[in-house]
Every structure is written in C-alpha cells, then in structure tokens.
What we know:
alpha+beta, 8 strands
Amino acid sequence: MNIYEKIFDRLTELHMSQIELSRRTGIATSTISDWRKKKINPQADKLVAICKALDMSLVDLLCDGHEKEQKVVQTDYMLDERHIVEVFRMSDNEMKRRLSRYFELVEICNQINENNVSKKNKRNVSVIQDIDGNNIVVINDILFKGKRSINWKDVKEYLKNYVGDFYTIASTGDIVYIGSDLPNEYSGSKYTHSIKGMNAKAKANAAQGIPELIEIAVGKHFRENNEEKHWRNAKFGWYRYDSRFALPVYDEVGEIERYNVFHASLIVRHSEDKKLYLYDILDIKKETSTPIEP
C-alpha cells in the first residue's frame, strides 16, 4: 500500500477531515488533496508532522503490515538501543533495508524540522475552507504589533528567511520563487507606507503565511511590463493572483474572540530568467461579512 493510501485510511479510521489534518500539520489542504488526486506520496520532510497528527510511527507509514514485527514498533523497545541492534540483526535483508531507510528518514526529518523551526520562526499557520469551499490561510499568532505603527524593519528581517524558497500555486501549477527583492519591497513599498492601523498590521502578519498564501492563490491575471526600471526583473510582465488570510482578534482577557478574514493580491513578476517571483502583496482589505469563530 502506498503512503498516501495509508494516510487517507488513517483519516477514515480516526474520522478526521483533511482540514483538521491541515490544521495539525500546517500542510495546505490543497496539498493534502493532491496526494489522493494525483496518487503521489508526501515529501519526506512532512512525514514526521503527519505521523504525529495521525498518531502513527514512521514504521507504520513506510512499511506494510506483514513486513513489521510487533516489537519493532513498540515505543519502549525503540528507546532501547540494544534491542534495536538485536531486531536489526535478526531481520531479513528487505526488513533491514526498510529499517535503514526509516532511520535515515528520521534523521532527515529531524534536520529539516530543526531548520524549519529556526528558519520559519515557529510559524503557527494552517489552511481551512469556508462554507463555499474557498481556502483561507489562518495565521494564529500576531508577531508584529505596534500601538502606533508597525516596525517594518522587523518584518523585513523576517521575510529574509524565505529568500531562495519556492512554492507551487495549486490552482495553476505555477512555481513562485522568493527573490532577494521581496523583503525590501514588501516592507518598504509606497503601498506599505500608505496603509495604517488594521491593514498595516494585517499585511505585516500576513508575512507568516506567505507559503500558504501562494499555494491557495487563484484568479491569475496578466499585464505587460511598461516600466523601464523593471525591464529585466519583470521582462515578461506581471501577474496578479487573489488570496485570503485570517488573523485572530483577542478579547479583554487575551482569549481569541474571532478571526477577521482579509483579501490580498499577490503581485508576481516574470523575470528574464523565465521564473516567477513574488514581488509584493497589495490590496489588503478586510472582508467584513466573513469573520471566523474560534
């Protein structure tokens, strides 16, 4: 049985929705749906989070039932180094290969997760769907606060963590890269300096959900580049996508009262290297009719 099949069998067993799995793992619902739709397995760096969310071990996920001995998957035994060595010694070649791969994946996932914790600043982000089936990126923490104004230098430093990454827009298959120009433009554009109050706070904190905002983007619109200063970095024009995100609103005692939903436009440039790069996020606007209850 394929890994993606085991995941959906486990979801059925737990009566868990894809939305809940997304909330627990931070993986976009569109990505989870693609596993079944396209018959593909998750990337290795997502396996640890999936196992934790589904209360499974990597052995459960990677090995078929008839290939596992019960003692291999017992947590107490797995903590005993001598027992691990003994189990490995007594296994056949196929089981040894799978066990070796298991421990390789554990190490890979641990390294990736450690890097992600540092690089992504422990993002607390998930993707849900509204009653119409439209995706919303839920950002559960308010990192950037300010009684009078946002410290955009902090936002700029945060955005540097994404430079070099790339993400796929589920609705179009477009791959969008994060270039070195995004931190400066996002935090220092004319639009950024023109917004105040709630919209400024919304844009600042939307930085936490950039990967998911790209993944759920829809409504691709093109326009040619007419500005000489962008003759290289937007040689093949500009694209605008629509995306949505939600931020928590707290009551007087610090409890989440509701989530406000915002619309945003992702501005993407088509560079001379023929790649798409996120340039800025504009048109931040609260959707007054669609608050989310916690």
